[in-house]
């Protein structure tokens, strides 16, 4: 299965980003996995571990825009619970955005342990969306980054530049974030013009 995802504006904050919200230039596998779970209405993030994903970008590198926004800081303590900070705790922060992002995703569910495969659920969600129970808007990245649409890829959508695993590559992306420990599994990538059956696939651990 090969999907086409159109997202007009999004951001993938880097793991070390704090006040200055730097973004990864490409969608991390962990983010794509979250999008697919949201698409099929699955709330258990461990449900389809073992699925393999391949991620490609249509066109050149997505442009990065930097915006200046006002961000209000909150004090998290028992004494300040339920207290909304006054405007004196607001300050300007920069935020990086990606625009006009077009992503292609391949799904391989052959190594999944469960009987119901993610690829089958995605196919069902696209063919009969009325049978899917889900909530919230479908977003790629943060919740405000809604996608324009998701459908099977067509040849006239454009040529694809694929992310392939390469330990010497300059693109570092998170594959999995452990919500308990806060630690992530990262992989280095580089872009190529041809799909590589060995190096393009990333397994969600």
Could you walk me through the main structural features you see in this protein, from its secondary elements to its overall organization?
The chain has 205 residues and is mainly beta. It has helices at 29-40, 118-127, and strands spanning 2-10, 52-58, 64-72, 90-108, 149-152, 160-165, 171-177, 184-192, 202-203. The chain has 2 helices and 9 strands, in the order βαβββαβββββ. Strands 1, 2, 3, 4, 5, 6, 7, 8 and 9 form a 9-stranded antiparallel β-sheet that branches. Strand 7 and strand 8 (184-192) form a beta hairpin. Helix 1 packs across helix 2. The longest helix is centred in the first third of the chain and has 12 residues, at 29-40. The mean pLDDT is 89.
- Net shape: globular
* Main beta sheet: 9 strands, antiparallel
Strand content: 35-45%
Mean pLDDT: 89
Q: Give start-end ranges of low-pLDDT stretches.
A: none
Radius of gyration: 18 Å
What is the number of strand segments?
9
Specify the helix fraction band. 10-25%
- Structural category is mainly beta
Counted by DSSP, the helix tally is 2
Distance between the termini: 20 Å
H-E string: EHEEEHEEEEE
């Amino acid at each position: 299965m090969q999907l086409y995802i159109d997202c007009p504006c999004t951001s993938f904050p880097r793991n070390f980003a704090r006040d200055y919200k730097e973004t990864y230039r490409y969608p991390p596998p962990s983010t794509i996995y979250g999008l697919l779970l949201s698409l099929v209405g699955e709330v258990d993030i461990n449900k389809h571990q073992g699925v393999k994903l391949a991620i490609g970008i249509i066109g050149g590198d997505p442009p990065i825009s930097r915006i200046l926004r006002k961000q209000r800081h909150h004090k998290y303590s028992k004494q300040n619970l339920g207290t909304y900070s006054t405007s004196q705790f607001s300050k300007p922060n920069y935020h990086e955005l990606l625009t006009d992002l077009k992503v292609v995703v391949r799904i391989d569910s052959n190594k999944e342990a469960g009987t119901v495969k993610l690829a089958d659920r995605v196919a069902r969600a696209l063919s009969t969306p009325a049978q899917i129970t889900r909530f919230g808007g479908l977003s790629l990245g943060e919740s405000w980054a809604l996608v324009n649409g998701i459908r099977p890829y067509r040849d006239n959508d454009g040529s694809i530049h694929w992310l392939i695993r390469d330990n010497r590559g300059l693109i570092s992306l998170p594959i999995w974030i452990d919500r308990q420990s806060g630690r992530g599994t990262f992989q280095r990538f580089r872009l190529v013009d041809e799909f590589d059956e060995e190096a393009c696939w990333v397994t969600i651990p």
